[in-house]
Write a structure and sequence with these properties.
With 408 residues, this protein is α+β, with helices and mostly antiparallel strands. The protein folds into 2 domains: 2-207 and 313-395, no CATH class; 210-307, no CATH class. It has helices at 20-34, 54-64, 120-127, 142-145, 149-156, 235-245, 248-256, 310-324, 343-347, 352-360, 400-406, and strands spanning 2-3, 9-15, 41-47, 69-75, 78-80, 83-85, 91-97, 101-108, 135-140, 164-168, 180-182, 185-187, 191-198, 201-208, 210-223, 226-230, 233-234, 259-263, 276-285, 290-293, 302-308, 333-339, 366-371, 373-378, 381-385, 388-395. The strands form 4 sheets. Strands 1-2-7-3-4-11-12 form a 7-stranded mixed β-sheet, covered by helices on one side. A hairpin with a 2-residue loop joins strand 11 and strand 12 (185-187). The radius of gyration is 21 Å and the shape is globular. It starts with a strand and ends with a helix.
Length: 408
């Protein structure tokens, strides 16, 4: 269990018991006994081992805390504090009690269609903003809302600059098996989330885990199934040529996990940190020369092949945290979404991201999960990316008296 040390209070708790009800009662008791007053919001994350009874677990925790805005979902693995639970059952929750803060849970399900079909009016009717939101957390089922339109539709419904963070769920390998809960509503598709308003400040921390290799290339032919031409030549042939020119370790890494990055702004003379949206290559069809992709890649896009790099990932996270600690107020709580492909497979041991964030930011309550892809602000807009990390830092707002005293 971890608690913050300011009047903007967050508590995080976890339990590893295999019985879902036992784990939920233990987490609920810790939160209830530690909080001096009922919280405004609660986030519950359960490993897939608990999927069958997640709604009951969320209900148990919510009712024990007098019914705050509550969201729950399944994930392949989760984090609490500096620990990552990547094996066996785990259930964790974070409660947020902020004086002057307001929170509401929202949901979209199969009846709303894919995010491309969501109108601004529909999104606003679900978010129900009573004042400009301070931040939006969103968690989507990848099989029904896993398109790039998900964060874009949410961002279009709020003021520019409002942080939109979260990720796509990793708790299932097939459609209909993830579990999403918003207050009392339960679904196996769509998206759920929390809107935060009032006296709360939200800051995004983003880290990337790849580096570009080979030349910049232009997508000259593509369709819904994949990329067939790069700079006027068969895409698979171009990939093979890039592989042949790489040093041994990079060749092995790209060959085993082929990735590419789409340039957010192709007009920039130099592309670097944070300038790409990383996407996987699902398969290479050398007969047709096509790189099969999970999402359509627009013709005319600029891309560069990417390789996973633990050193770059660690350095990038530290640079992002350097900026976060410029604020003299330690975060009261942190939500962390780390893409699949980080963790032990990238760093050699589990817990790298949660441990580093926890250490650098003073040990605040932290709740996190392994995401199929993270949702983070990249290039000034919330987007779905891969092989990266997205964290939402919560702080109580400075009051005017403190601001005037600080300026003396």
């Amino acid at each position: 269990m971890h608690a913050s040390t300011t009047n903007f209070l967050t508590i995080a708790a976890s339990d590893r018991h295999a019985d879902t009800r036992t784990a939920a009662l233990a987490v609920a008791a810790t939160l209830r006994e530690t909080l001096p007053a009922p919280p405004q919001a609660v986030l519950v994350i359960a490993s897939f081992h608990h999927a069958a009874v997640v709604p009951e677990a969320v209900r148990t925790i919510r009712e024990s805390l007098d019914g705050p805005a509550t969201v729950g979902f399944t994930a392949r693995s989760l984090m609490e504090g500096s620990e990552e639970f990547d094996r066996g059952p785990a259930l964790a929750a974070m409660a947020v009690a902020g004086p002057g803060m307001r929170a509401r849970a929202f949901r979209f399900d199969h009846r709303d269609g894919p995010p491309e079909a969501w109108s601004r009016d529909l999104v606003r009717s679900r978010l129900r903003p009573m004042s400009p939101p301070r931040g939006v957390m969103v968690f989507g089922d990848p099989f029904s809302t896993g398109s790039t339109a998900l964060p874009a539709r949410l961002a279009d419904a709020v003021l520019p600059g409002v942080p939109v963070c979260g990720g796509l769920l990793s708790g299932a390998s097939q459609a209909g098996a993830n579990v999403l809960v918003a207050d009392e509503d339960v679904s196996n598709s769509g998206a759920v989330g929390l809107v935060l308003e009032g006296d709360v400040e939200v800051e995004s921390v983003v880290s990337h885990g790849v580096r570009g290799v080979g030349p910049m290339l232009v997508v000259t032919e593509a369709d819904a199934g994949g990329i067939s031409e790069l700079s006027g030549r068969p895409a698979a042939t171009v990939l093979d040529e890039v592989l042949a020119e790489l040093p041994g370790q990079d060749r092995t890494t790209l060959g085993r996990t082929p990735l590419f990055g789409l340039a957010i702004d192709a007009t920039k003379p130099q592309q670097g940190r944070g300038d790409f949206l990383v996407r996987p290559i699902a398969a290479v069809d050398r007969r047709s020369g096509t790189l099969l992709t999970t999402n359509r890649v627009p013709r005319g896009s600029t891309l560069q092949f990417q390789v996973r790099d633990a050193t770059i990932a660690a350095q990038d996270l530290d640079m992002s945290l350097d900026l976060a600690i410029l604020d003299d107020r330690p975060p009261a709580g942190i939500l962390l979404a780390g893409s699949a492909g980080r963790g032990a497979s990238l760093f050699g041991a589990s817990g790298h991201d949660a441990g580093r964030i926890h250490e650098r930011l003073g040990g605040p309550p932290l709740l996190g999960f392994e995401a199929a892809a993270e949702i983070a602000s990249i290039g000034g807009r919330p987007r779905i990316a891969g092989l990266g990390l997205s964290a939402m830092l919560l702080r109580g707002r400075r009051n005017r008296l403190n601001l005037s005293e600080d300026s003396r």
